[in-house]
Design brief:
CATH topology: Alpha-Beta Plaits
Shape: elongated
Distance between the termini: 20 Å
Largest sheet: 3 strands, antiparallel
CATH architecture: 2-Layer Sandwich
Number of domains: 1
Number of strands: 3
Length: about 55
Amino acid sequence: MNLSSTKKWEYATVPLIVHATKQILDQWGEDGWELVQVLTGPDGNGLVAYLKREKA
């Protein structure tokens, strides 16, 4: 496998506000981020979005 052709990714975790979830995800999507998963936050409250995008 040629390492120079291997994709490299960066990741972000974003707390989601329930009444603004779509707007938050749309904004990150406009910046090139892809939603990977949404999970309950570490404190057991709220939601956290996990996103990734290819490094430039």
